[in-house]
Design a protein that fits this description.
CATH topology: Hypothetical Protein Ychn, Chain: A
Strand order of the largest sheet: 4-3-2-1-5
Strand content: 15-25%
CATH architecture: 3-Layer(aba) Sandwich
Number of strands: 5
Structural class: alpha/beta
Distance between the termini: 24 Å
Radius of gyration: 15 Å
CATH class: Alpha Beta
Length: 142
Amino acid sequence: MDTMADSNEKGLAIVLHSGSFDRLYHSFSIALAALALGREVKFFITYWALEYLRKKDPATFNLDQEGEAHIRILEDNIRKGHIHKVSELISETKLMGAKLYACTGSMGMLNISRDELIDDVDMSMGITTFLTETSSDQILFV
């Protein structure tokens, strides 16, 4: 059984599937906290979350059905600077040492080339490679 000390030594691997702002926001918040605690963080960004990695017209604010009910609150807090845009969170996590990996399978399905992705993406890879690289890490799926 893992103790608290053991889990702080493990890296954190986050699989981002959803493109919903609230899920991405919390994923990056968790990553920033883990980085502040000295843990390594690696993101595997797939499907609808890939939209936030595009150079041209990156997604700024997508919500799922539950989040749509609270869109005014979120927009107001972003405008006031109380919460960050996803692009800002990506920059912060990169500055603290996080790795961003884009899913090649999803890139193919969505017809996204590597050249279309922001420079913050460290590399593109498949899920098998990601799981091999993160075999001893704690994995979260969002």
